[in-house]
Amino acid sequence: MTYDLGNEEMSIRTTEVRRLSPEDWALFRDVRLEALAESPDAFSSTLEREQAYDEEHWRDWMRPERGLKAVARAGETAVGLVGGWLPEDRGGAVELYSMWVSPAARERGVGALLVEEVVAWAAAEGHPVVELWVVDGNDQAERLYARSGFTMTGETQPHPNDPGLRERLMIRPLDS
Ligand SMILES: CC(C)(COP(=O)(O)OP(=O)(O)OC[C@H]1O[C@@H](n2cnc3c(N)ncnc32)[C@H](O)[C@@H]1OP(=O)(O)O)[C@@H](O)C(=O)NCCC(=O)NCCS
């Protein structure tokens, strides 16, 4: 199956968020690689590393036990991606990761839709909190998360790809 990742005019009115299932592994791969290529500093992985993953690796990543993946689509065009997973050492908190909106679709609320998809999934699964790491200086992402109800915790860690940069932890507690 092929997916159009082009950047033709698109409207928020036609944008929908769709949760991915294991058979969508190639779509997840394509959008994830597009995100890593377009925004190399925003993620804790690299295009070079993930281009080397084989089909088995992508399929393994799509197993339901490894959490949620969702794409935003404007018609047939994938315009955004997000994931949510459960790190073992975070006391049941869901971590939102792989947040990306294609440049042509930004500033229309697509990012906010993707955040809400992870929050809805985490709440339905009974998790107490959603957290995420944002690279210091990624003001656009930080504003999106703040508007979506996340606050800074003060916890930081070095960026895995660049020890000169720090990532900051933001959290959004969920109603029980
Ligand atoms: C960060 C990112 C996901 C934001 O996505 P987005 O879809 O543009 O986010 P939103 O549309 O929800 O909000 C962005 C801006 O558009 C504005 N906006 C939202 N809906 C709007 C609408 N309907 N009309 C006009 N403006 C709108 C928001 O107010 C916001 O403005 P601000 O940044 O000045 O506060 C996107 O820029 C991106 O993919 N960046 C590269 C990767 C990245 O940094 N990922 C995050 C890793 S932690």
Structure description:
Pfam families: Acetyltransf_1. The chain has one domain (12-173): 3-Layer(aba) Sandwich (Aminopeptidase). The protein contains five helices and seven strands; from the N terminus they run E-H-H-H-E-E-E-H-E-H-E-E. The chain has helices at residues 25-38, 47-51, 55-61, 110-124, 139-147; strands at 15-19, 68-74, 77-85, 94-101, 129-135, 151-159, 162-173. A hairpin with a 2-residue loop joins strand 6 (151-159) and strand 7. Helix 1 crosses helix 3 (55-61). It starts with 14 loop residues before the first strand and ends with a strand. The structure holds coenzyme A.
What's the arrangement of secondary structure elements?
Blueprint: E1 15-19, H1 25-38, H2 47-51, H3 55-61, E2 68-74, E3 77-85, E4 94-101, H4 110-124, E5 129-135, H5 139-147, E6 151-159, E7 162-173
Parallel strand pairs: 4-5
Antiparallel strand pairs: 1-2, 2-3, 3-4, 5-7, 6-7
